[in-house]
Task: inverse folding
């Protein structure tokens, strides 16, 4: 079983920055894709950013240019750097690691952006 732990959430003012981490244990993530999702009440969980095992990335239009997804395979960790945060970025953020039919979720971390 892969376990994903997500430190890094918190409260920040609009225009500020946060870095989320997704630290894995139980397996090596080098061959996994890593995704960051977010969810707010009344809305479905949405994909924010994704990085595959080769380092190719994809971003939701709402965060492109502001968020950067990365990975450090030596540390078995994925990251989401969030800059120029907006109040509409407020959500619970979840990391996900996937390999074929295998999929694992972090516990989620609250990100709150104040005006």
Result:
């Amino acid at each position: 079983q892969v376990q994903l732990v997500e430190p890094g959430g918190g409260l920040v003012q609009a225009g500020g920055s946060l870095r989320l981490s997704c630290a894995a244990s139980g397996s090596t993530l080098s061959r996994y894709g890593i995704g960051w999702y977010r969810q707010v009440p009344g809305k479905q969980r949405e994909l924010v950013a994704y990085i595959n095992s080769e380092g190719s990335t994809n971003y939701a239009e709402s965060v492109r240019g502001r968020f950067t997804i990365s990975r450090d395979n030596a540390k078995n960790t994925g990251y989401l750097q969030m800059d120029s945060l907006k109040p509409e970025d407020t959500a619970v953020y979840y990391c996900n690691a996937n390999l074929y039919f295998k999929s694992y979720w972090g516990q989620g971390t609250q990100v709150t952006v104040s005006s």
Observations:
- The radius of gyration is 13 Å.
- The longest strand covers residues 91-99.
- The mean pLDDT is 96.
